[in-house]
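Usage

Read records sequentially. Each one opens with the input sequence:
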Amino acid sequence: MEKRRRPSTSDFDDNSVTDKMFGILSAGSDDNDMEIVSSVVGNLMAEGCLEQNLRIRNVPSDADIPMGVQFFAEYTDVDAVIVITFGGKELPEYILEAVMRLQLHWNMPVVFAGNMADYWKVHKQAIEMVLLQYEMEADSADSDNPDRRSIN
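and closes with the structure output:
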């Protein structure tokens, strides 16, 4: 049996990230941490995302992450949210559960980066999720014109 591989952004060549919007939410960052946010922005732009399609917000602490994600869902047109936490600590379960509920309610992918290894790949995870979501919606029998926002 052949092992299935995870799709990459190159598997979706007909889909571009040029018109996709991403929210970047940093939690409890200071000026030194903003370099990491800048790296994520640079990585998204290197993949083809336009600077005007990026929304960046900061919340004071990890406990405020669900409120920040909800802000993006309700008040912006982002296709996905990238949450950046600092210090490499695991988030409490109640925060992850709240974000999961928001993802399901708003049909909006949320990906997390909390350590150095994640910071360099989180943009690819967000792009893959957005492109996969658009591809699945396009394949849906219920959708002649896929738009994840029409679900809500």
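Summary fields computed downstream for this record:
- The first helix runs from residue 34 to 46.
- Residues 16-135 form a domain with the Rossmann fold fold (CATH 3.40.50.960).
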